Structures are given as C-alpha cells and as structure tokens.
C-alpha cells in the first residue's frame, strides 16, 4: 500500500515545434536532441504538472519517475534532473488501513479508501473460508458416495446371482427373519461366519437361521452356500429352506437339528452318550454325504471344511453335512478332480497337506477325503487324544494311531467295550489311516471309503504308516517308530494341538 505522501515525482520529457518560455519547462537542448533541428526539447518536473500545462505545439516523448526534492519545480536545473535519473526512484510502502498489508503483499492505490481495502480483502477471506468450510463436507460426501457405490455393486452382484438361480429355496424378508426368530431370542451358536438362532416357521416346524456377518467375505460365502446347498437333496446333507438378502443383511434358513453338532458329543468333558455303533453309523452317513457331493450332483462339490463342528445331528442322530461357505463347484468329467485354488481354505488340523505344500500334489476332492479321515479318527477316541503329545512334541498323531492298530491284542476303543465294538473301532481307524495318507494319490475316493466301512474288518488291509510329508523315509524298531526328516514345528504343532485339546 502506497503511503499517504508520495515519495516520488513525475518527469515528463516533451518535444515542441516552437520555443516555449515558461519556468516549468527546463531546456534540454544542450544535453539531448530528441526531435529535429527545428524542434526544442524540454523537461517538466513535479506531480503538479497536468495536461493543460502542455503547450499546443508540444508532444510527450517519455514519462519517468524521480526522487522528490525539496525545491520547487521551477527552481530545479536540468543537471539536477540528470543526477536524479542516475540515482533512480524509490518504491516504498507504509501500513495503511490494515497492519497486515505488507504480509500478503496487497498493494492498492493511494486514493483507495479503507472501505475499498476491507471489501477487497474480506472478499478473498470469504472465498478461502467458504472453500475450507464446504471442501471437507464435499470430500466426506464423495467418499460416502464411492463407498455406497462399491457396496451397492456387491449387492447387485448378489441379486443378479439369486435371479439366475433355478429351483431356489424360499426368499424371506429381513422382517420375516426377525419375526420367526422372535427378535433373535434363542441363540444356538456362533462362529467366524456369524451367529445361528432357533426359529419357528409358520407351519410350526423349527429351523436354524444363520445370520452372516458383514465381513469382507460375507457376500461370497452367502452365494457359495446358496449355489451349493440350494441344488442338493440328500439325506446326509443339511437342507436349505430359505434365505434372506436385503443389502448388507443376509441370512440362511436351514432345517433344525435338535442334537446340535457332532463336536459337542465327541469333545465333551464327560463320557459321551454316543455308542460306538452310533458313531459308526454317523461316520458312514457322512461318507455317503461326501460321496454324493463328489459324484452324485450335476456339478462336483468340494466342501473343503469337513470337521465335527460342521456335522449336524437330527433327532435320530443321523448326520448331515453343513456349512458350505468354503465349498467350490467343479465341472464333472475330464480333469474335474483338480481344483483351482487361490489360497488355502479349511480348518487347521483337518486340512490336507497339499493345501500347504504344492510339491505333495494338486488340490482335489482328495482334500475332503483327508478331512474325513481325521474326523473318524477323532470319533473313534470320542475325544481329542491326550497321549499324542505326552512325551515328545515330535510324536506324530497318525503314527501313534498306526502303532496302536498294528499291535496285536491292543484294544482300540476307549473304555469298557465288547469285542464287536472294538472291531468297529478298529475298522474305523484303518479307514481313517487310509484317508489321511500324505500322498493324495494313495487316498481312496469316497465311494471306496463307503465300501471299506460297509465291508468286513478281515478284508481291510493295513495302510502304509503315515509320514509327515511325501518322500519321507521311515525307520522302525521293535519299540517305536521315528521319522528321519524334520518338519516345520508350526505344521507339527497344528496337527498335535487339534488332537490334544
């Protein structure tokens, strides 16, 4: 902002056709010759010079600035003007109307009023303030818009999938789900997928409603279950009655299993009420169910999560396979036995070794065979075996079981049982050992597993002793067997912890 008193004055160089005799006009002919020989050159100094002071025969050649002197205009000589031009002129500011004038470098003419300055400055401030105030909400609105579009896209994919399905179960609204569960009153269980509640349908029958969590994989798990269970009708596979899909709210309605899951019966602290005969029929029913998934449908279904928690029992203790959130559909025929996997899936302790180590073999339906083998080995003991990790952490549970079953006269069943019941337990153990062979090629398909369970014990050959990984050499002596190679402690502990808890 220029100060109230000017620090400079104007210098006007003119050229006149005729001589001008005035104290305001300083003769410059002795120094410069701007025009022709017939013209005269003059200099006018001072801020008081106005256009009316210019003679009619004169024209302006140049205007410059000079430092202001204390002399009056007509007292200045042209020699002093020349010296002032050599010195130059100053450009200075003074605080005017606002102490912040110099900081933002806002310069205004001297005759600008305080109101003009404040108006100009406040306009800029208002623009900046408006941008800051509205900018943050606009960014938040944009992020919410992007988030909603992304989730609406996921919801649209689910809706499109449901519309393309044939033979679909009943579709319930979320209000219907709340009504049949009485506001989610009776909770049956909870897991990583969400929670399960008991429901009473309109016809008076009971059902189990699984409310899927809102995690990242909730939509994929939902579509996977509907795509698999929705097309399955088998006595040993849980029946999907209906479903609910309203935006992020998703639920699955299953037939109710009054005896809960198998793990509550075989891992209970007290003695299980299930007899070996019942456990045998449960294992045979599960085998029939897995065989149907692998061979009985138009699409081959790989479950990838066979374990006691996912085996439900009806009022007569008939088993039904449930929880198809990790299932995968394969085209039958050709190379259908090989599954395309982007990541390992399943539960540690029941997962086949090829899920972790690609050099063992390709992932296929044999992964379900392995999980079934671990399942019936646990069922035989009715609890997670405590002896597997008693002496050494390197003791491999299947090797310990193999030693037990291969030793003549050693009882297999736990507790006081008859000889017939012990034979049932031994048959289940031998079948389980065949199923958990490390090399997938050595595991029997599920139709063979069913034949082995239904056949005689005498016709069952003892399988090779299980090893920790394919290619491992096993040395035996009279007292114990030990492995000559080392397996990572994480894999060993995961297997032992599953059978020792």
TrEMBL record:
Keywords: ATP-binding, Glycoprotein, Kinase, Membrane, Nucleotide-binding, Serine/threonine-protein kinase, Signal, Transferase, Transmembrane, Transmembrane helix. One of its GO terms (molecular function) is protein serine/threonine kinase activity. It comes from the Eukaryota. One of its GO terms (cellular component) is membrane. It is found in: Membrane. Its main location: membrane. The keyword Nucleus does not apply. ATP binds at residue 210. The chain crosses the membrane at residues 118-145. Residues 182-468 form the Protein kinase domain. It is a single-pass type I membrane protein. The keyword Transmembrane applies. This is Protein kinase domain-containing protein. It comes from Linum tenue.
